[in-house]
Records
---
Amino acid sequence: MSKQATPATAPAAMKSGQDDVAALFHQLRTQNRLLKLVLGGVLTVGGALALMGARTPPSRATFDEINVARINIVGADGGRSMVIAARGLLPEPVVDGKEIKSGRGPMPGMLFYNGVGDEVGGLIYDGKLDAKGKPSAGVHLSMDRFGGDQQLAVHHYEVNGHMETGLSVYDRGLHQDYDALYQQYQAAPAGPEKQALRQKWKDAGGEQTQRLFVGRTRGDSSALILADAAGRPRIMMTVSPGGEPALAFMDDKGNVIQSLPQAGTAKQ
């Protein structure tokens, strides 16, 4: 029997071999797709576990020195607890959840925030020389009431060749009680109505008053000044730069009603 294929049967054999090869390639491609799906799932689960492991415990970094323009210290809910900022990057004050325009933007400093996101105080400072070469500078550390303005401040100011350094206690109402009145006052045209709105704003606690000052005055005296709710000085205890002590009691018009040494007493 001859093993040589006849011309009539050779094409059929070739077709059968090609079909076998195609089936093998199809099977390999199917297995390759399944392998990719399995590997992808393993890598996804492994990556998720790795990320979960990286979050617990939180990572910590140690630096010997760092240069930064602003640091926002936030809580787990993303709310601010403190902001430390370079010159020009301080945020505006926030009271009752609203930003209030201020003139402190160019200053550097550090601000504190309470649990509802309102500012409760901070440290601001700056200094430069004026056209005459005299310093214009200040440092101000304040503490605010809840829903309102500063109540206590430690401060130092220099302007026009004079200095004032001391501790002050202030009085002011709640922002929610006087803010709407102030907006109406600003929008009102000049006249009696505007003045009436200003008085309502003051009666609602809108005007900040200084109740106490202790420190060095711009006149270079040491002083303790006590004021009433309207901010009018009623008792002043001073020591002049030359060493002369004085104690004065005043009425609501600023007139001295009693003093030590007594007014008009000749020096011995």
---
Amino acid sequence: MDLHALLTLSLGDKLFVNPRRINLLEQIASTGSISQGAKLAGISYKAAWDAINEMNSLMPEPVVSSEKGGKGGGGAKLTEFGERLLKVYSITSQVQGMALTALLDDSVDMHSLLDVMAHFSLNTSARNQLTGRIKGIDSNGLNDNIGVVLAGGQSIQISVTHTSSERLQLTIDKSVLLLFKAPAVVASSTACNVGGQNCLTGRLLSVTKLGDRAELSIDIDGKDIIYSVMPLTQTQSLVVGEPCFACFDATQVIVASMN
């Protein structure tokens, strides 16, 4: 389905920028000329001038600066504000595109912008990346113990310093991104009951041999996959397709949030 949206920025009831004007600004930035920029953007020179004058008059800072022709030939360029405008428009368009894609993909959690961005565009060195919502915060001296409900409904505990909790502005019901590396996860056929350990229920999807070690993928609730890297000798009791537990320490999780 070719679902798309045209991003328009307005100030009150007056048009500021739309895709046509953004294209004009991009061409001016590339050519250094309003006339050449207008030609490449497929609009008349007068229409280009009218658009630039309107954009320049709507904001405290101009978008385009120009010099009249003369010995040096004249020219035009984007101001620093104009260059920032192009970058912000590009970023906003990307976020808008991700939101539209998420609309058609029911596997994407839609509780917050963080959920959507993490699903489509956030890459980290941590093999495991989960999103969830904070359900409880228990301050315990230097550290805060934080309960998080994952997208599939299971709950885990994470531990961060109280300073980090304040800096991230962690509060009840806030969306967070949880990152932890595969070697921090132990896959087991039985649940662990060690204090400070999380143990998520899932199903073993695969075991990939890596020399004397193995990478395991575990499906939890049909929403997320957790990866584990552990000695091959410790995987002998695990069977692909059978129930499996993914266990990791609460202190191994890195938390990210959007303020």
